[in-house]
């Protein structure tokens, strides 16, 4: 038995959230996002303000009235709600919540790691209210921190000395070697116009390497006062400023000297904490804060001096167990989205990196659709949402792990969410530089994530690129995936052996959790160039990326393997391993600034 169960004191207060159904206008919202995000539209770049988005996607008056009347009838009169009326929050005594939901709440303590959760194992809503509520939190979702990470080592292998393309087996052999000290170049050691060979060590990737690899090294940001980039922490992660300072001192000394580790803003939601002391041994064993270190260090390493804001979010989402995921390690996206959508327009980020990925089928479909609709609202307001494509390839390796949880037990590939939402930009991971290839690490189970959604249909902006890919691979793995689904990823960036500082020491880390903030940082610099010319930010990226295609370097080596198969191969053009390819900032900047691709005057402001 892994849990100790205790009844709660009935006078304690519990913070509850209700998400009210409002999906009737989602199609209209999607249409609006397409108009302001498609370079072929005369409304391209004419992003909406908060009021307009709230009017686009709001709960019906009937739904709001029924839910509020029900709460008041149960003596819950003090509650807050979102501008759109689709989210209601209240702090209520546990006794009262139990009467409201016909349930009993308990504390569950995990006897292995001491974590404590407040949950009920069953609950219900009155018949007249149930049709109007999508989600109640907290109820029966359980959580354990996700195991994280992979580390990594020595002399040049034969294939490198011979100047030939390595085989998969040779790459795995190199991954498995124990690693000692790894030299990485510093800026003052480089020639005036450094090459990738000058700046990079393929076994330990640094911000300097990335800035040369993606062409941002010589760019001087001009719009620092009016630009912003955000990251989001879940699952107990935070951003330790001491670690970030050490990292910047070593790999981005100009950012360290400017106080970037101390000056970024932190916002805590839903009981999240901002621990700035070193981890305990138990926290270190659970890798607490590891994801937060990677996210902050990756985005600051490239995006500085763009101002950074970090959100740390507590709470737990609804969850549907699968053969591969028995306990809830998913993220409560709506806890964060409900707050960020309430921000005034000037407080919104221009780009946000979300470096988390869940097995799509473990996210209840109704909740996934609500989260995706909220991402669409951010896109309509001019925010680029950049997410990780996942770290398990086409699905996890191992017998019986790639099985549907719909009661039919079908063998299926396992796409990731929120990457499967069509209103975000999903970023896969690559490794090495000549050639660049789809990332994996033979030392671990890491493979860059790719595939096709089971929930969301393929958006029009992907049709041409994805149809070409499907014709190329033919019947490969037919029946294991949904060829009509939203395809993942959209783009990719380095995600192998990323250097980080965590708990005061250096580590090498793999994952799309590194590639997502890397790509987001490049978007932040693109927005900087646009803002400097008085232009709107990029907003929802995908229609622009798929229509342009220039500015992205195709990746044709490797595959998103998984589920004991060869998975999805990288090929010429878009593919389900590396998307459209990796960014080249100078071309993307020129494309973003090309007036034929932008419509400068917001349609909702009188000329």
UniProtKB/TrEMBL annotation:
Q: One GO BP annotation here?
A: proteolysis
| CDD domains linked | Peptidases_S53, Pro-peptidase_S53
**Record-level GO cellular component terms:** extracellular region
Annotated active site: 291 (charge relay system), 295 (charge relay system), 513 (charge relay system)
Instruction: Give the cofactor note text.
Output: Binds 1 Ca(2+) ion per subunit.
Its keywords, alphabetically, are: Calcium, Glycoprotein, Hydrolase, Metal-binding, Protease, Secreted, Serine protease, Signal, Virulence, Zymogen
Keyword Transport present in the record's keywords: the answer is no
GO terms (molecular function) for this protein are: metal ion binding; serine-type endopeptidase activity; tripeptidyl-peptidase activity
Compartments annotated for it: namely:
Secreted, Extracellular space
The chain positions of domain Peptidase S53 read 204-595
Give the EC number(s) under which this enzyme is classified: 3.4.14.10
Please give the cofactor(s) recorded in the UniProt entry for this protein.
Ca(2+)
What domain of life is recorded for the organism?
Eukaryota
Q: What residues does Ca(2+) bind to?
A: 554-555, 573, 575
Q: What does this protein do?
A: Secreted tripeptidyl-peptidase which degrades proteins at acidic pHs and is involved in virulence.
* PANTHER family for this protein: PEPTIDASE S53 DOMAIN-CONTAINING PROTEIN, PROTEASE S8 TRIPEPTIDYL PEPTIDASE I CLN2
Full protein name? tripeptidyl-peptidase II
